[in-house]
Amino acid sequence: MINLAIEKSRIIKCNEKVWKEYTKIMNNNHYQSKLLEFLNKAIPGLDKISAAARTKVSHWFKERIFMPRMKLIVEGKVSDCAYIIKKGTCALVSSKNPLARKQSGKVT
User: Fold this and answer.
1) Is residue 8 part of a domain?
2) Which of 5, 36, 51, 95 is the most buried (most CB within 10 A)?
3) Quick one: how far is CA 95 from the chain centroid?
């Protein structure tokens, strides 16, 4: 395929590397925008701070997918993270709140 100018034309050109970087930034901005929308609903009072501060806060959060039975945190271990469940269901399981209890030889 060959592109030909039919009449006198002005074309703006952007090399592929620059374009890929731009689309990466735009996709990230879209993701951050959606994340900020979610965080505004999930974190009480977030909507009371400035837009610049909210944007900064949104960059602190990274979405991660946990598969069933994966541990988010371990009992007795100090975590350096806070979690907000965006979608799905999680259970608090501890030695004081066991998820599975034995009843007549079977796990429920």
Assistant:
1) no
2) 36
3) 30
